[in-house]
Write a structure and sequence with these properties.
Blueprint: H1 20-33, E1 39-42, H2 60-75, H3 77-82, E2 86-91, H4 115-136, E3 142-147, H5 155-160, H6 162-168, H7 175-187, E4 197-200, E5 203-204, H8 220-231
Parallel strand pairs: 1-2, 2-3, 3-4
Antiparallel strand pairs: 4-5
Helix pairs in contact: 1-2, 2-4, 4-8
Length: 233
């Protein structure tokens, strides 16, 4: 879609992140029509109330919020490298503070499925993977940042967590306030940000608040990265 005459053009593409073939088609089209990508922001998220899987048997929270962003980042890496210094920003959630990363139990079985828990585990995985991407691509000019936008008054929160929304609505952030750190990470000079950190309110924050949520296996993020590289190939 073109902007007003004389201004920069604006375009968009569509992809269903719960369908990895759709993600592949989007990336193929993007790379065929663009030779560089300065900023990639992963901001898709949903809390599914019932257990549902994609055609490959992956629960949709894991498929859409862990596997799909991983796949998309890899497919768009040539464009990110061409634009270096560039950056990838992953919008996580404070809900991840309640969960430990364990690649074996990342996907809940149908018998014990809870949408909020599945979402929190996926958000923990996103942060760990951002750190792993940063380690693997150190020195390339592509930086990786994960962030928590705060608790924002959105239709998704109101639908998925009605009790929480009702009690906390007076102090919830506006969408504009929630987006502030995302925009800041996208435009701040890269030398001020480094790579591989977790951010909130424009400040680096700890990844763990509860000691029992630390990974028992220090290589958990690497094992998840390698698993996703295999299953999305």
């Amino acid at each position: 879609m073109a902007a007003a005459s004389g201004a920069a053009s604006v375009s968009y593409g569509l992809a269903d992140l719960e369908d990895l073939d759709s993600v592949r088609a989007f990336a193929q089209h993007f790379c065929a029509t663009h030779d560089r990508l300065d900023v990639l922001i992963h901001n898709a998220g949903a809390i599914h109330p019932q257990f549902r899987t994609d055609q490959a048997g992956a629960e949709l929270t894991v498929a859409g919020q862990v596997a799909a962003p991983f796949l998309l980042t890899g497919l768009l890496m040539p464009a990110l490298l061409a634009a270096a210094p560039s950056r990838v920003i992953t919008v996580s959630s404070g809900g991840m503070y309640s969960q430990r990363l364990d690649p074996v139990t990342l996907q809940l079985p149908a018998s014990r499925y809870r949408g909020v828990t599945a979402y929190a585990r996926a958000k923990r995985a996103q942060v760990a993977l951002s750190r792993e991407w940063a380690a693997r691509f150190a020195g390339t000019g592509v930086a990786f940042h994960a962030m928590h936008p705060g608790w924002v008054d959105t239709p998704g929160i109101a639908t998925a967590l009605p009790g929480f929304h009702r009690l906390t609505r007076p102090i919830l952030l506006t969408p504009e306030q929630g987006a502030d750190t995302i925009v800041w990470l996208a435009i701040t000079p890269p030398e001020r940000l480094g790579s591989g950190r977790f951010w909130h309110d424009r400040r680096p924050r700890p990844e763990y608040l509860l000691p029992w949520t630390r990974e028992k296996d220090p290589a958990a993020a690497r094992r998840l990265w390698d698993h996703l590289a295999t299953c999305t190939a």
